[in-house]
Amino acid sequence: MTRMTSSARPLLNRRLAEFGTTIFAEMSALALSTGAINLGQGFPDTDGPEEVREAAVRALRDGLGNQYPPGPGIPELRTAVAAHQQRRYGLSYDPDGEVLVTAGATEAIAASLLALVEPGDEVIAFEPYYDSYAACIAMAGGTRVPVTLRPHEDRFRLDLDELRDAVTDRTRLLLINTPHNPTGTVLNRAELAAIAELAVERDLLVVTDEVYEHLVFDDAEHVPLATFPGMRERTVTISSSGKTFSFTGWKVGWATGTQELVTAVRTAKQYLTYVSAGPFQYAVAEALRLPDSYFDGFRADLRRKRDLLGDGLRTAGFEVYQPQGTYFITTDITPFGEKDAHRFCRALPERCGVVAIPNSVFYDDPAAGRSQVRFAFCKRDDVLHEAAVRLRRLAS
After folding, report:
1. Edge-to-edge order in the sheet of strand 357-358
2. How far apart are CA 143 and CA 380, in angstroms?
3. Which of 136, 179, 273, 395 has its CA 20 to 30 A from that of 265?
4. In whole angstroms, what is the distance from residue 220 CA to residue 250 CA?
5. Per-residue confidence of the chain (396 residues) as pLDDT tens digits?
6. Strand ranges (DSSP E) for 274-355?
7. Is this model's pTM higher than 0.85 or not?
């Protein structure tokens, strides 16, 4: 028997009332039901390095991680993360107190915001933003304040004056994402230096989502915000293995920062998953020690895929904003005489047999991204070729 409640109060916490099923679930279901090529959700359709997969199998067989791993993560992975930060960026972290392993970057973001934000605090985030940002800020009781990245020439750009004007006496934290999903923007040194100066001047905490740190193209470079003066002591830096090694289902992420910051984040994290992905942690520790040739080859392969799909989208008639990083391309559908990206994406599987994501769902003000559509290019070459062929139907 179903128990009825006499209360008129909605069952869902009011902080989450504006959030429903994620756009990724909606569009992936549409791809499945129509048989369309799914260029919506950002996951590769091939596995990562065989030696990393074998490391996971070996861990399983050797009984490593099959029971609860340590709450902060296994020492081998924490040491590997610290070594990676030192080797790549000259950032020194103590693996015993300044590195925390999480269930992917999404949990690291959630734990950071739950730990560092209180009701009434304002959190500034760049829009369009990854959809979990808004939900996590809401769950923490914070108020999100968007600063919009806007198209300029061939890419999206940050208005530093707009960012500075957004800071108030209630601002607690900056949530920075670079390389940026969904626009593919990579903040340059001058932009990062200005953000660092603002954070120090206004005594703000910063959480940086850097999961695409190894996917930067052309003349762009990824520079962690924590490397700038005054930033290490106020920054939680987040990354993960999923995007770098193409094992998104393993959900192994991490956060680095001062012991005080990491302790705060760990306090929240331990009541979320507590621990996860035991055997995979051992495999990711080995993955982080792969030679530079792996990272260089992976980046070059994704750059080639970006160009393959980008050329196909231009040929089909889209306006294409060239991404400097990530594995997403943002386009504009205005050249087709279309303005509603959500309606366009719902119709696209029937029109062309391709699924994409409307960027409007990543904005507080949907009108700001109303005509933008995002495509993922982290797919096999034959899939991208076929998608490009199908999308040409739009040109006719």
Report:
1. 319-321, 328-332, 372-376, 357-358
2. 40
3. 179
4. 28
5. 555 555 678 888 989 888 877 787 888 888 888 899 999 988 899 999 999 999 999 999 999 999 999 999 999 999 999 999 999 999 999 999 999 999 999 999 999 999 999 999 999 999 999 889 999 999 999 999 999 999 988 899 999 999 999 999 999 999 999 999 999 999 999 999 999 999 999 999 999 999 999 999 999 999 999 999 999 999 999 999 999 999 999 999 999 999 999 999 999 999 999 999 999 999 999 999 999 999 999 999 999 999 999 999 999 999 999 999 999 999 999 999 999 999 999 999 999 999 999 999 999 988 899 999 999 999 999 999 999 999 999 987
6. 319-321, 328-332, 354-355
7. yes
Q: Decide if 149 contacts 183 (C-beta within 8 A).
A: yes
Distance of CA 306 to CAs 17, 71, 217, 277, 388, Å? 36, 38, 9, 31, 12
Residue 90: CB partners within 8 Å, gap ≥ 6?
A: 227
CB atoms within 10 A of CB 153: 8
Encoding tokens for residue 147?
């600063």
Beta bridge partners of 376: 328
Say which amino acid occupies 387.
A
- Beta pairing class for 253-256 and 235-240: antiparallel
Phi and psi, residue 6, nearest 5°: -90, -10
The tokens describing 313, both together, are 């989208």
User: What's the token pair of residue 233?
Assistant: 């002591």
Q: Which two tokens stand for residue 328?
A: 């997403």
